């Protein structure tokens, strides 16, 4: 199935949704070959019967198409170590204003955070961006941009345009990170934003490891 086919299938199943919810975006990303944490969505008012297949510690996040930043309103619970803590976290998050449910995922191991995103600019059209992620993208604004879609060579150029490239290669004795896997993320995001179906896509952070990547948070809105 092509990228376009997967996007069409995704949109047909969510014709009235905008913006899309995090677990929905991650479902599309998984279909495009990107790695996302193992998790489950629990609708508001649904009792947790089992989290079989998930390993503690877990993270729980409020899910709502009307909440722009979960962390700013206390909508994230980290380091959940057992079933009782999970029940408490889900109960609290489900009662938050505008909550539609809770996304429960396995905690990710630490790594280097990057951001990969895309936007349709009124003047230039679809654009893909890359830079150090997490809080660093807000503090240092060390990001690079390119017209979308991009191929693998252009994605590598995008990385080289940032100061974070030194860390990707291995800095002060640290092992080099998986640039090949990151290249795939950038190319896929560029194809999604160039499809003409979406206004924005924001993967922040994407955790980069010596082997592989993991998309921890994902947002997307339609045209």
Structure description:
The chain is of the alpha+beta class and 223 residues long. It folds into two domains: 69 residues, ATP-grasp fold, A domain (Dna Ligase, domain 1); 113 residues, D-amino Acid Aminotransferase, Chain A, domain 1. 30% of the residues lie in helices and 28% in strands. It has seven helices and ten strands. The strands form two sheets. Strands 5, 6, 7, 8, 9 and 10 form a six-stranded antiparallel sheet that branches. Strand 5 and strand 6 form a beta hairpin. The longest helix is centred in the last third of the chain and has 15 residues. The radius of gyration is 18 Å and the shape is globular. It is an enzyme of class 6 (ligase). Pfam families: ATP-grasp_5.
**Sequence stretches where pLDDT stays below 50 over 5 or more residues:** none
CATH class of the largest domain: Alpha Beta
Q: Please, what is the CATH homologous superfamily of the largest domain?
A: ATP-grasp fold, B domain
Helix fraction by DSSP (H/I, runs of at least 4): 25-40%
* Rg from Cα: 18 Å
Q: Note the main sheet.
A: 6 strands, antiparallel
Gap between N and C termini? 23 Å
Kindly report the CATH topology of the largest domain. Answer: D-amino Acid Aminotransferase, Chain A, domain 1
Query: Which structural class best describes the helix and strand composition?
Result: alpha+beta
- CATH second-level architecture of the largest domain: 2-Layer Sandwich
How big a fraction of the residues is strand? 25-35%
The number of distinct β-strands equals: 10
| Shape field | globular
Q: What's the total helix number?
A: 7
In round numbers, the mean pLDDT is: 92
One letter per element, helices H and strands E, the order comes to HHEEEHEEEHEHHHEEE
Total domains, how many? 2
């Amino acid at each position: 199935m092509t990228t376009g086919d997967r996007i069409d299938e995704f949109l047909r199943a969510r014709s009235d949704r905008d913006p899309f919810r995090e677990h929905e975006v991650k479902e599309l990303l998984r279909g495009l070959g990107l790695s996302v944490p193992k998790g489950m969505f629990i609708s508001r008012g649904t009792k947790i019967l089992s989290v079989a297949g998930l390993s503690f510690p877990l993270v729980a996040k409020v899910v709502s198409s009307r909440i722009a930043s979960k962390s700013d309103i206390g909508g994230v619970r980290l380091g959940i170590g057992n079933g009782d803590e999970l029940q408490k976290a889900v109960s609290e998050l489900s009662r938050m204003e505008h909550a539609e449910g809770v996304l429960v995922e396995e905690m990710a191991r630490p790594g280097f955070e990057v951001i990969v995103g895309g936007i349709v600019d009124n003047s230039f059209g679809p654009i893909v961006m890359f830079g150090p992620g997490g809080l660093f993208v807000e503090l240092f604004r060390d990001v690079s941009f390119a017209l979308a879609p991009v191929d693998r060579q252009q994605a590598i150029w995008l990385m080289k345009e940032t100061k974070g490239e030194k860390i990707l290669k291995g800095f002060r004795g640290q092992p080099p990170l998986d640039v090949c896997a990151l290249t795939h993320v950038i190319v896929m995001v560029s194809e999604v934003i160039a499809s003409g179906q979406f206004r924005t896509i924001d993967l922040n952070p994407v955790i980069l490891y010596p082997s592989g990547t993991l998309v921890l948070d994902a947002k997307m809105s339609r045209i």
